[in-house]
From TrEMBL:
This is ABC transporter ATP-binding protein. The keyword Mitochondrion does not apply. GO terms for molecular function: ATP binding. Residues 34-284 form the ABC transporter domain. Keywords: ATP-binding, Nucleotide-binding, Transport. It comes from the Bacteria. InterPro entries: AAA+_ATPase, ABC_transporter-like_ATP-bd, Oligopep_ABC_C, P-loop_NTPase. It comes from Sphaerisporangium rhizosphaerae. PROSITE patterns: ABC_TRANSPORTER_2.
Length: 361
């Protein structure tokens, strides 16, 4: 994959020329930022309520594409669902806030106010697109249901916008709207999910593993569509992925999660080029190689923690960390911000003064 050189650690990308079916021009003025503060999500289990997110704090700048990476069970999808206040029982948001420009604290929204926020302000593209589509209704009928539920006055205009979006993504809009989900391929269903997330002009779009189970050609098409529509509509985008290559291809900033914590966050190319947290380094070293010395690719030792095995004290990564120190077993590392990078690691913090001395020697 090729990486994007522009946008990493920079201000939001400039608007491009207008494309039929896409809203541009004034979009940037309404592009929202997101501030997650001390967010805690717990799940009820036979052992009691156990944390899936443990005091997560994260800032998503307006107009950026932010990637969330980590192994399965790290809390990526739980964080994404929390932005919609959509964590379902036996889970619940136990503390913290999710402030979104133009909406306020989403955690405080409920009932009709929350329903209207979803779709109108917040768009979500699910990991398995077929699971979010009704197999008994055509895509067109589901689109009309969506419009009616949000009191859209001009349903024919909504259909025209949906067709334009689908055609913008390389599909026959009329045929797709006339089809049931089983009549569409995986890549087509994923594009339908993107259309449904955007057709009500949402400004914050969350994509949960949008390229999972897709072939390489379709994956490249979906990533191109994500980049183009993000830029042309002036969106703020959050992409959940386990694929470092996908993150490098499309995101501006990258947050690495482990055990329900954000352990590193910063501009994508800086995080991938000079990772500061040992978990981030481990993820990068585990990427399979197709050329060069393939023995340099090494799997992370051990297994990621489950709800019941997350350490109750100290660093969540302590059991798998090659740099573990005594303090890691008892004290949770604070998130230290420096030069636009955030890292939560005792070893990284201990090494920082030595790095400074070397720079000034």
């Amino acid at each position: 994959m090729t990486t994007i050189s522009h946008g990493v650690g920079e201000s939001p990308r400039p608007e491009s020329s207008a494309v039929p079916g896409l809203l541009v021009g004034t979009a940037a003025a309404t592009t929202p930022g997101v501030r997650v503060r001390d967010l805690t999500v717990v799940y009820r289990t036979p052992l009691g309520e156990l944390p899936a997110l443990g005091g997560v704090s994260l800032t998503i700048e307006p107009g950026t594409i932010t990637g969330i990476v980590g192994e399965s069970g790290s809390g990526k999808s739980t964080l994404a669902l929390s932005l919609l206040n959509a964590v379902q029982p036996p889970g619940r948001i136990a503390g913290g806030s999710v402030e979104i420009d133009g909406l306020g604290d989403v955690v405080d929204l409920a009932g009709d106010r929350l329903r209207r926020a979803r779709g109108r302000h917040l768009g979500y593209v699910f990991q398995a697109a077929q699971n979010s589509l009704n197999p008994l209704k055509t895509i067109g009928k589901q689109l009309l249901d969506l419009g009616r539920s949000h009191d859209v006055d001009d349903l024919p205009a909504l259909v025209r916008d949906a067709k334009s979006l689908l055609e913008r993504m390389g599909l026959d809009g009329a045929r797709v709207l006339d089809s049931h989900q089983h009549e569409l391929s995986g890549g087509m269903r994923q594009r339908v999910g993107i259309m449904l997330a955007l057709v009500l002009n949402a400004r914050l779009v969350i994509l949960d593993e949008p390229t999972t189970a897709l072939d390489m050609i379709t994956q490249a098409t979906i990533l191109r569509i994500v980049r183009e529509i993000h830029q042309e509509r002036g969106l703020t985008t959050l992409m959940v992925t386990h694929d470092m290559g996908v993150a490098a291809e499309v995101t501006d900033r990258l947050a690495v999660m482990y055990g329900g914590r954000v352990v590193e966050h910063g501009p994508t190319m800086e995080v991938l080029g000079s990772p500061r947290h040992p978990y981030t380094r481990g993820l990068i070293q585990a990427i399979p190689r197709l050329s060069g010395d393939i023995t340099q690719s090494r799997a992370l030792p051990g297994r990621p923690p489950t709800l019941g095995t997350v350490p109750k004290r100290g660093c969540v990564f302590q059991e798998r960390c090659p740099l573990r120190m005594e303090v890691c077993e008892t004290v949770e590392p604070p998130s230290v911000i420096e030069n636009g990078r955030t890292v939560a690691c005792h070893a990284a913090e201990a090494a920082r003064p030595a790095e400074r001395r070397k720079e000034h020697a």
